[in-house]
Amino acid sequence: MSLMPVADALSKLLSDVAVLDTETVPLAEANGRILAAPLASTRTQPPFAASAMDGYAIRHEDLKDSGTELVVIGEAPAGHGFNGTVSAGQTVRIFTGAPLPEGADTILIQENAVRDGDGIKVLEAPARGAFVRPAGLDFSEGDVLLAPPLKLAFRHLALAAAMNHAEIPVRRKPKVAILATGDELVRPGTQPGPDQIIASNHAGIAAMVEDCGGEPVDLGISPDDPITLAGHVRDAITGRADILVTLGGASVGDHDLVQDVLGQEGMDLAFWRIAMRPGKPLMAGRLGPTKVLGLPGNPVSSLVCGLLFLKPLIATMLGRQVDDGAQSAVLAAPLPQNDRRQDYVRAILSEDENGQLQVTPFGRQDSSMLNLLARSGALIVRPPHAPALEAGASVPILVL
Questions:
Q1: Are residues 126 and 148 in the same domain?
Q2: Cα 163 from chain centroid (whole Å)
Q3: Residues 6 or more apart whose Cβ sits within 8 Å of residue 179
């Protein structure tokens, strides 16, 4: 089987993906969720002309000069408007957020007035309409202020609350079942045997799923046993996983059982083996309604493939545009000619003296070296058969 180009593989992976259904959640649980329907305001904000400062509500036409004296006829704290009318020569003590009394059109801030019993003297006359927030200054009833597929953050939720929405329609979180495979793996915090290592891929993939708006489901670690492995696959299906991610076991070794087991369980294989480095053994398919993504076992390969394929898959299920985050940067060290596979080179990201992004590739790119990935700020994208480049060349990058 020939190696499939990265772009072709991604296109095939996303070609049959449906956007997930909608659910309604309380406002307090909507942070980070994907808005599923337009959100219109149920009210006007502010609902009345209001004072923007503490001071005095006045009629601007009463201001003869800087020494104008006015009679204080009442008070308007926030939440308690003055029940009356401001007439000629009168004023009402007012506080921020309180409704502007009938008859008044301007706020004289308290710093520009001297109080003397039931009267004030104007020290500095304001402009007409000063410090008055008109009704509807922020928004009006019926205004559509939030639209899908917005990822809701703190500022959006504050606005939704001001619009008087206690519940928000959002996309259901994709449920992503994660299954690590291999006799050599043990969980973090346990003591590995003499021939074992600590499993790490599942932790990174689970965090990636959460960052993308999905719900990770840890299926644990399956040994290299087809019966046990098949049982875990069935757990994902019966658990209604939208995506099953397997980690390792998808290559061609005698102990790489994942593809065979998935096939026996009815998986329709979409593609296998991609023209990329790291991550050539990537596999994709479908088990009924569940998308299957078989990531390589090497840690860096697994995480890079997650960025390139799992992240867009989740985004598509949530109805969002796929954004690869591609940018360009100046190469700070030479790179050799590339071969037939698209290469994703770990690199330090920095800025040069002109503020231009620059990347310094690590000399060794072994796909087992998580330390280098953690230290990287970007991946340099090297197309197949890209020529050798000297320092100073512009290269495409994916910012991490």
A1: no
A2: 22
A3: 219, 220, 222, 232, 233, 236, 244, 245, 246, 247
Give how many domains the chain has, as a whole number: 4
- Closest by CA position to 75, among listed 57, 49, 50, 53: 57
Q: Is the same domain home to 203 and 291? A: yes
Q: Are residues 236 and 313 located together in one domain of the fold? A: yes
Number of neighbouring beta carbons within 10 Å of residue 39: 22
Task: Examine the domain organization and report whether 393 and 286 are in the same domain.
Answer: no
Amino acid residing at 154: F
Tokens of 206: 């689970």
Identify the CATH number of the domain in which residue 380 sits. 2.40.340.10
- DSSP SS3 for 226: helix
pLDDT value at residue 1? 57
CA torsion sign for 261, 15, 306, 32 is negative
Global pTM? 0.90
Q: What would the pLDDT profile of 278-326 be if each residue is shown by its tens digit?
A: 999 999 999 999 999 999 999 999 999 999 999 999 999 999 988 777 8
**Rg, Å, the chain Cα set:** 31
Do 207 and 71 share a domain, yes or no?
A: no
Rounded to whole angstroms, what are the CA distances from 8 to 4, 199, 273, 301, 366?
Answer: 7, 30, 12, 19, 25
Q: Of 110 and 64, which is predicted with more confidence?
A: 110
**pLDDT at site 255:** 54
What's the pLDDT tens digit per position in 209-257? 999 999 999 999 999 999 999 999 999 999 999 999 999 977 655 556 8
Residue 1 inside a domain? The answer is no
Q: How far is the C-alpha of 5 from the C-alpha of 238, rounded, in Å?
A: 33
